[in-house]
Design goal:
By secondary structure, this protein is mostly helical. The protein is 64% helix and 4% strand. Strand 2 (182-184) and strand 3 form a beta hairpin.
Length: 542
């Protein structure tokens, strides 16, 4: 707090792998801009103040016990203890307000420090390189994590990567091509429109607890500065490092060194990775003919025996054009806005004002906005349902020309039936999560026994559902040996989880894994039925 400390800056090779030299220069200038800020010292003081306030508010168990002992000595003592406790509660209320005041002001300073560091970067490297790297960052991060997740699933097959950064580069370009992004200097260019094209929210809330400004705010600030540097170096930032491939491979080895028996893992060839990643992607996405229409929505329910017939000669693109996609994301935005406003109404979010559709409102005005949003949702949902019915009618007439219209109808029937059942399954899943929450908290022994009795009913339902899953062909490809073995282990006994006043950890692990795997499989099963329907539809076009 009182003496200068050494500052360290760590650079990830995943970042280096997805930027140009000039962008690297801008990012370094941004970070060194922070080093030059004397206000960075404020963070140490705020951290220590937070520790003090936290300890005074919550880390006071010994003090509570002492107060309780004094109160039990005599009735006279208890009167003074009650008075003292009321005074302490008043002091704690003041401390909570102080915590809010200190941190809100510090976070506002932190956001200004980000703008200042961005301005330093713009003066050194120009505003465009920093802007382009900021816009690409989410895609680069997603690509890196996709590779990590891929190999997490491959460990059971004793496979590892030789160089995850080469694979990150492949995934970055693959996803960019799938999203139809443009390229510059062998890197995808993400525009502000690409970043926010599915964000249709009309609600604007200034997050006073954010440590960083939003990407949109930072880009707006950079464009206002508008400092352009000529003769920038657009080569990959990897070229700045000596023997970069060797460094990447060494870091990859280090990552896998934390895996048990990592020396026995085989290297997966880059070509095999590309093939399998592409297959996995295809397996988990819908046909491009739908243009993302079904990515975040399911077919709305309607009567399959009552629809207006359309000619199969119409252009399929009319059902999945930009106007129809916008309807979906407008509806999602309205639903999200409604939920946020309900949270404001219920004081989950503490704020005084917010902007909606270009107008400023006070927090107390949320109740007047909710009916309007609900009405907009209702109108939009009618339009979406109308389009869904027309989609079915179009594909039904196509199927009729091939004599397989009854098969299309049965697939829609199966989907609608599963849709209703899925709602009930998800209710069971969330009830199980709520019923097992007490395992994570300190709970009196008698309460534990009572909770376990309540859990027993939910477990009977879970075991029925697991038995159905094990016998259903739909889940056959998704039931790994690990999941199947744990399910069978769970079904064969009535586990007790608690004995001799302590939890039985190995039995709890069986329960938790069964609940988590059940949640995964019901969601996966829903997706597979939906994909089967949509694949059948799209194949009618050829």
């Amino acid at each position: 707090m009182f003496f200068p400390i050494k500052k360290n800056l760590q650079i990830g090779l995943g970042l280096v792998n997805s930027i140009t030299e000039q962008e690297f220069k801008a990012i370094m200038a941004h970070e060194f801009g922070h080093f030059s800020q004397k206000s960075m010292k404020v963070g140490s003081y705020v951290y220590n103040v937070n520790q003090v306030i936290f300890n005074m508010l919550y880390d006071n168990e010994s003090f509570d016990k002492m107060i309780q002992k004094w109160a039990n000595i005599s009735g006279y003592f208890s009167i003074f203890v009650i008075i003292a406790v009321k005074i302490i509660m008043g002091i704690q209320w003041v401390l909570k307000k102080m915590y809010d005041f200190i941190n809100i002001n510090y976070l506002a300073l932190s956001r200004e420090m980000e703008f200042h560091a961005d301005e330093v970067a713009a003066n050194v490297a120009g505003f465009v390189p920093l802007k382009e790297s900021l816009l690409r960052m989410d895609l680069a991060d997603h690509s890196y994590n996709s590779v990590i997740n891929f190999y997490e699933n491959k460990l059971s097959e004793n496979l590892k990567s030789e160089n995850i950064y080469k694979e990150q580069n492949f995934v970055l370009n693959f996803l960019a091509q799938e999203s139809e992004l443009s390229f510059k200097n062998d890197l995808p260019i993400v525009s502000p429109l690409d970043l926010n094209k599915f964000n249709k929210s009309k609600l604007i809330i200034k997050d006073q607890w954010a440590s960083h400004p939003s990407i949109a705010e930072r880009i707006s600030n950079l464009e206002r500065i508008n400092i352009v540097k000529e003769n920038s170096n657009e080569k990959s930032a990897n070229s700045l490092f000596i023997r970069i491939e060797e460094l990447q491979e060494n870091l990859t080895k280090k990552m896998f060194s934390f895996v048990e028996n990592s020396d026995k893992l085989s290297i997966m060839k880059i070509e095999d990775f590309k093939t399998e990643f592409n297959n996995t992607y295809e397996k988990n996405t819908f046909n491009k003919v739908y243009n993302g229409y079904y990515d975040n929505k399911n077919p709305n329910y309607f009567d399959l025996n009552d629809f207006v017939k359309l000619s199969p000669n119409q252009n399929v693109e009319m059902f999945f054009n930009k106007e129809k996609i916008d309807m979906i994301y407008d509806f999602i935005a309205l639903e999200n806005d409604k939920n946020t406003l309900l949270n404001i109404e219920n004081k989950v979010f503490s704020l005084k004002t917010f902007d909606y559709d270009g107008q400023k409102f006070k927090a107390k005005d949320t109740i007047s906005l909710l009916p309007k949003i609900e009405k907009e949702k209702e109108i939009l949902n009618i339009e979406i349902s109308k389009n869904d019915i027309e989609i079915y009618s179009f594909f039904y007439e196509l199927a009729k020309t091939k004599g397989i219209e009854s098969e299309l109808k049965s697939k829609y029937d199966a989907f609608f039936k599963n849709d209703k059942e899925h709602t009930l399954r998800m209710e069971l899943y969330f009830n199980l999560l709520n019923a097992t929450e007490f395992f994570s908290n300190v709970t009196p022994f008698e309460q534990i026994k009572s909770n376990l009795n309540s859990l027993e009913g939910w477990e009977m339902e879970l075991k029925k559902e697991i038995t159905i899953i094990l016998e259903n062909q739909l889940y056959k490809s998704e039931l790994t040996e690990s999941i199947k073995e744990n399910f069978e282990n769970y079904l064969k006994e009535n586990w007790v989880y608690f004995a001799n006043n302590q939890y039985i950890d190995n039995e709890l692990q069986i329960l938790f894994k069964s609940i988590n795997d059940y949640g995964y499989l019901i969601s996966r099963g829903y997706f597979l039925i939906k994909k089967d329907l949509l694949n059948f539809q799209s194949e009618l076009l050829y």
